[in-house]
Sequence to fold (175 residues):
Amino acid sequence: MTRFFGYGSLVNLATHDYADARPITVKGWGRAWRHTALREVAFLTAVPDQDAEIDGIVASVPDADWSALDLREAAYLRIVLPEGPSIYHIPEGHHEPASRAHPVLLSYLDTVVQGYLRVFGEAGVDRFFATTHGWDAPIRDDRAAPVYPRAQALSREERALVDARLREVGARRMG
Fold:
């Protein structure tokens, strides 16, 4: 299969050049903030959940050359979903919840939310927050000097939207 399902930063079309990306909802998967020994910070992973569904994008991998995408998603395992596209996720038992030692980067979250806003609108941002678990994770505010390598500049309104949703879910920022 030469298509993939993106449910995090891949939803932000400015972070890649997969030209045929389009919105899709996948059933049977949830999304959570997790960390592994492969990265110092927490990131999103898809988690099997028969009662859940998450929005994202589906796109083709040109010439079935997965090397660049596999490199970008190196902390994940790629599997093929029954409905066709591949999904990157961390198998159960290979990840832990985010922690002070492994926080969520605000620059990463900003990039993800900007993607959801542009592809799905504000209702899509609301669904992203509602269908993502682990909002008790500490969030490292790196907006002034982004650590996330594909960080995107947000408008004042986009930053305000992220900040408002973080308050609504009771997220904790750390310096």
About this structure: Residues 104-174 form one domain.
